[in-house]
Amino acid sequence: MxxxxxxxDGRRSQTRPxxxxxxxxxxxxxxFWRIDLSGPTTKDLSSHESTASVASHYYDVVILGAGLxxxxxxxxxxxxxxxxILLLEKRSHIPPPHQKVxxxxxxxxxxxxxxVLDLExxxxxxxxxxxxxxxxxxxxxxxxxxxxxxxxxxxxxxxNVPCYQLDRNKIEGExxxxxxxxxxFTFHAGVSHLDVxxxxxxxxxxxxxxxxNRSNQIQADWVVDxxxxxxxxxxxxxxxxxxxxxxxxTFFWVDGLLNIEKLTDLPQRERLLHKNHNKLGHVPxxxxxxxxxxEGYWFWVIPLQGKTSLGLVxxxxxxxxxxxSSPEKVIEWVxxxxxxxxxxxxxxxxxxxxxxxxxxxxxxxxxxxxxxxxAGEAGRFTDPLYSPGGDLISLYNTLITDAxxxxxxxxxxxxxxxxxxxxxxxxxxxxxSYAVSYEVLGDxxxxxxxxxxxxxxxFTFYVFPFINQLFTDTVFVVPxxxxxxxxxxxxxxxxxxxxSYYRWKKARPVSSRDPIFFDFTSLEPLKKSEELFYxxxxxxxxxxxxxxxxxxxVEKLARFIAVYIYSVVxxxxxxxxxxxxxxxxxxxxxxxxxxxxxxxxxxxxxxxxPKLAKTGANFIAQFRQVTVHDRPARVTIPSAPVLSIAAxxxxx
Length: 652
Ligand SMILES: Cc1cc2nc3c(=O)[nH]c(=O)nc-3n(C[C@H](O)[C@H](O)[C@H](O)COP(=O)(O)OP(=O)(O)OC[C@H]3O[C@@H](n4cnc5c(N)ncnc54)[C@H](O)[C@@H]3O)c2cc1C
Prior knowledge:
- There is one protein chain.
- The chain is of the alpha/beta class.
- Among the domains are: 1-101 and 168-237 and 395-421, 3-Layer(bba) Sandwich (FAD/NAD(P)-binding domain), CATH 3.50.50; 465-652, no CATH class.
- The protein is built from 22 helices and 20 strands.
- A hairpin with a 2-residue loop joins strand 13 and strand 14.
- The longest helix has 33 residues, at 474-506.
- The radius of gyration is 26 Å and the shape is globular.
- 50% of the residues are buried.
- Flavin-adenine dinucleotide (FAD) binds at residues 64-70, 88-91, 101-105, 109, 191, 194, 226-228, 230, 232, 249, 251, 311, 356, 359, 376-378, 384, 387, 389-390, 393.
């Protein structure tokens, strides 16, 4: 067992009532599957008395691990095929008595759970529908002891593709309950001595394990590993791989709701009539995934029904893991960085907790034409910022389901190569967001550029194809990967450029600032990319045409960001509307060198295009004045690390 998993498994639960409640539901589920799940295997096994007896059976698919990835994959297969599925789980209770981390979801996973897996009613009943992602900063010169003191960035309107704050234990319990209703599904919890012998090409895989003191050996057409951080198959096959992200997290749950809007000294009437509602409106902000940010870290506040999830995620180079290695240390740390929490956090009872000192990793391969695959944390994991974990489970499961349903061997061989490339590209595109520009979390303006860019790409290249069910259409995937690869170079350049600007700006701090309330969608290209949510039912060629068209929108945002940074650094507001600069700025070769940038701008024609500033009029109005104001003398800034990441550029 890895160091990380043993730390996670070694965490303590501090309240018996919470534990009892979860155990009770596990016991009910256990009784349920014992009574109702007597599929062929369970019946046959129950007829064997000897603990040494070996039962041999065949399944179409064996899934290893009953976490979110395994349970959702089983449901997707049951809903879309006539396959017989065996799900093997090491733990004896599913859902486990301890609270599980991984609660926030965004559009791809929201759509997958709600629509594809048809869980909308359960989601609406048992989990909060979320109010987007929201980010907070402590403006310099403010006391930051009241919620109203904080600068915020957010999207004011609810997403038309609903997303949720998942109580992981509840949803995993519901998935298991639903799967168990299908006679083609067999579930064994508490298995040990798991062994898998993978067959090459034609034969069946052999899976052996001990269940209820009996040895079992079964044959299976497909084996899918969803064993999470245990990485059962990846370790056996020597596929584990590191990545450049070295981040850690300490998280815990408190009893009851931590309502961030009530973290204030203001009486209720003043709080409700506060002028900030002119911008923010009245949807409860606590329904968002709330991020309290600083350089290289964020502290999450996620409401679950009856409890609140809290967690610090940090870059190990910026915050020492030892300084934040327990909830108590994190609370003390948060009180210093974000004193607004002094209002309540100390009073709320900690009911569960966990930590990872270094949680991110890659994997060399996640699907094979030899009929095995990895999904969820059994394969790759980047970082929880923006919640890509659940999205990648949704995407990988969809590709794995399609591969399992592909009968023809030649077609499967092609799909396995293509899907491997796609899975890698969808993961790899996130890496610069975490490896290159995490420190940018320390500044609202820089983060607004970073996140608006990333979200525009996400809506265009992840959500739009997913809601059109195009990732399993090979006619779509090939040109899609081509477009996506081009984006990889641009993404890497822009992330580096924003990071260098952040460092430059950090050396010129302002002494005080009023809170800024910034809606990300006031940057036009993001708003435009969200319109793709309403483009559904497109064929592969139509969607590619739409993506090519949207590429212009994505590039327009990149150009705006680059030119805006030029204008601030060179202290020349006219540059924002300079037609020639917008057209010629080299998006695939951006270099943050103020002198070179100045030289580049000297020869520009002065023709203006007022439309250029409109791309981010509100952004300029909110940030430019405060950014160019109150600067000390110039200092030399180290350039940002250069990382060579080109999404989709891997050879399969
Ligand atoms: C700090 C942090 C915060 C996160 N926050 C978010 C978030 O907000 N949103 C989001 O989408 N994602 C988030 N993630 C990621 C998310 O937690 C994962 O994507 C998700 O939990 C992975 O689910 P899984 O099914 O792969 O693994 P798990 O849920 O861990 O399930 C694996 C299962 O396999 C079982 N198992 C292990 N070994 C064996 C074996 N040998 N045989 C049989 N069974 C076995 C385990 O007991 C377990 O039940 C976060 C991750 C971290 C580290």
